[in-house]
Amino acid sequence: MRLLPLRSSTAGRLPARPRTRTALTGVLLATSLVAAACGSSGSGGGDKGGSTKADSALLGPAKAATGTPVKIGWVGTGRTQAVDASAEERSAQAVVDYANAHLGGLRGHPIQLVACEDKSVPADAQACGNTFVREKVSAVAGGSPGQADPWIKIVSPAGIPTVLNLVATQVALTTKNVFLLGNPLGPFGTAAAYAREAKLSSAVVLVIDVPAASGPAKALSPIFFANAGSKAKVIAIPPGTADMTPQIQSAQKDKPAQYHVTGDPTFCASAIKAIKALGIKATITALDRCVGSDKGASIPGGFEGVKIMGQANQDPTTAEYKLYSAVIDAYGKGLKINDSYTVSGFQGMLGLIRVVNSVAGTDVTPAAITKAVQTAQPTAYPLGGGATFQCNGKASPVSANICSTTGFVADASKTAELSNFRTIDATGIYKLGAN
Asked: Quick one: which of 53, 121, 199, 272 has the most CB atoms within 10 Å?
């Protein structure tokens, strides 16, 4: 852990939302979100891999924070043998610098980021929680940390609110004063909503067989697709399976209208390659995290024709994306603008700032921040293309901690350049029914 020095820059605004404890099915409570399981190597956001030159005027007029500093904790995975998620923390710091310079910090107070890496190790995550309590942070923010439960169990009893972008563990979904700005169930619900929109009557969900992905897929996909008027069969395939032809051939006996692929870039490439090799004409949908650094070079025909489901609208013509580009250009030296960790860090940190700053007041105690998040009106979701979130406990029937059901669909080119981003209507998709 390190305490980053206070910088006189800018921060973003945060989205807030309250929660009410909602009962979940036992299976859902036992699983964590697929985002962590699928990993990330850069989303296919139709933009340059490196920093982009943006219009600094988009940052707005100078409005430096002048009050006493406020400490905000940040949890990221950092760099491990399996993944390099260090861009997430750097992106969050860029947002802090932006907010301190252009948004008046957090309610007029300069934000001081207390950053900690969980390294995907429970003991390290627990140490982060102890650090946050010791440092007396006013809130903890994060993008998609690999280990959230250990530190949430420490900071929540201490009265410290948590604002995360995309996490869906049992603890995150049910613990008091945890707010989930994005839609952690989007990997399954957005595909179901698309099936309803496109009038696809049946689907096969191909998911990487690791607990954090296959567990939620098996528990939730059939329910969400049924709510969409479709049927879904879930096939979990072990990571590292190079040839998925046998599994696809077996699935094709039911002639599904849709194949939805959920996994890391290598897994997704193998699945899509097998579908295309068999000449199947069904609609293919895939998570944005399926797009790796090779941009589909290993897939015959690449990602051409695949519908990409994402949590960020990376249409470069939208005001949100232009702001994102300007912030990363000005304060995120060396960050890749289309890297999903850069995106997630930006969304998590700016969401917190926006939601708190949207409620009048200057108090930045944990209690005051919690109340602001819970009582805020619908707040613009960072990189949401106009979508909003609200943490009043009513956004999702699955968990009162979830602040939105936002999901996006985009068209992909052969080289995974994404276009035609749009928000998809998920009304009624996330009902779990009586259980």
From this structure: 272
Was domain 186-310 assigned CATH 3.40.50.2300? yes
Return the CATH number of 2-23+48-182+316-404, one of 3.30.1330.60, 3.40.50.970, 3.60.21.10, 3.40.50.2300.
3.40.50.2300
CA distance 327 to 382: 12
Poorest-confidence range of 16-20, 96-100, 312-316, 388-392? 16-20
pLDDT number for residue 55: 78
What type of residue is 421? F
CB hemisphere CA count around 84 (13 angstroms): 7
pTM (2 d.p.): 0.83
Question: Which of 289 and 387 is assigned the larger pLDDT?
Answer: 387
> Residues 230-235: what's their mean pLDDT?
97
Asked whether the beta carbons of 349 and 92 are under 8 A apart, the reply is yes
**pLDDT confidence of residue 47:** 42
CA 163 to each of CA 130, 179, 383, 408: distance values in angstroms, whole numbers, following the listed order: 17, 5, 17, 21
Q: Work out the angle at residue 362's Cα, subtended by the Cα atoms of residues 390 and 344, and round it to the nearest 5 degrees.
A: 40
Spatial CA neighbour of 136 closest among 84, 197, 70: 70
Measured distance CA(316)–CA(46) in Å, rounded: 8
pLDDT at 43: 45
How high is the pLDDT of residue 176?
A: 94
Would strands 307-310 and 408-412 be described as parallel, antiparallel, or unpaired?
A: antiparallel
Give the pLDDT band of residue 433 (cuts 50, 70, 90).
low
If you write DSSP's letter for every residue of 207-259 in order, what string do you get? EESSHHHHHHHHHHHHHHHHHTT-EEEEEEE-TT-S--HHHHHHHHTT--SEE
Q: Which two tokens stand for residue 230?
A: 């479709």
Residue 228 near residue 171, CB atoms below 8 Å? no
pLDDT for res 16: 34
Q: Tabulate helix, strand, coil % of the chain (nearest 5).
A: 35, 20, 50
